[in-house]
Amino acid sequence: MDYSDEEIAYPVEGEALVIRRALNMQIKEDDVDQQRENIFHTRCHIQNKVCSMIIDGGSCANVASDTLVKKLNLSCIKHSRPYRLQWLNECGEVRVTKQVLIAFASGKYSDEILCDVVPMHASHLLLGRLWQFDRKAIHDGFRNRFTIVKDGKIITLVPLSPKQVYDDQIKLKKECEDGKSENSREDNGERNPSDSGKPKSLPVESGGKN
To answer: How confident is the model at residue 157 (pLDDT cuts 50, 70, 90)?
Structure first.
């Protein structure tokens, strides 16, 4: 494979769309540049929103979180082969009955992936073995990078550092807790007068290089 025209796809910069934290990470000073024990975490754009993305060869499916689908009002289709799943959330077994076509971009890499919709708390988007197989992705385990060929171009996806992943998880946890408090007030019939008539919106990216 000729790497002379290789494109590097760095993680998207900006505030991430709200999800619930499911991963617990402890960062050590000497782990900052190490990827040996880390799952591949990055960020991508979905409908111009900054979203978290994981690539995990241990997953047999491509998965989109139901939070992402609801927040962005994405249209779903019936799953042709519904099945039961247990490991992606803390609510026990769930039945997977819907799929959604996700268009996303990370750096110069853009793609559309058909994903199963589940209540996943670890990320907005998870690309599993199906994506790796279909895109003929090559994983560099030492640097924890994925290289694919898309539209005749070689693209290498670069992960977030462990500290970046940790910082994202802390922010997402706080945003999730704030969202739960707001939902609890609404469930109890409470409403902030200052919010009357105001449409709710998603967090918008704060800029930075794509």
So the answer is: very high
Third-level CATH fold of 7-17+38-177:
Cathepsin D, subunit A; domain 1 (2.40.70)
Identity of the residue numbered 71: K
**Joined tokens for residue 204:** 């918008």
Q: Which residues pair with 102 in a beta bridge?
A: 113
> What does the alpha-carbon distance between residue 52 and residue 46 come to, in Å, rounded to a whole number?
10
Percent of the chain residues past pLDDT 90, beyond the cut: 40
d(C-alpha 62, C-alpha 85), whole Å:
13
Q: How many Cα atoms within 13 Å fall on the side-chain side of residue 63? A: 27
Structure tokens at 24: 């617990």
Residue 70 pLDDT more than 80? Answer: yes
Determine contact, residues 53/41, Cβ cutoff 8 Å: yes
For the ranges 26-35, 57-66, 71-80, the maximum mean pLDDT occurs at 71-80
Token readout for 70 is 């609801």
Pairing of β 94-106 and β 145-150? unpaired
What are the residue boundaries of the structural domains of the chain, listed by start?
7-17+38-177
Q: Taking the CB of residue 17, how many other CB atoms lie within 10 A of it?
A: 24
CB atoms within 10 A of CB 94: 17
> How many residues are recorded in the chain?
210
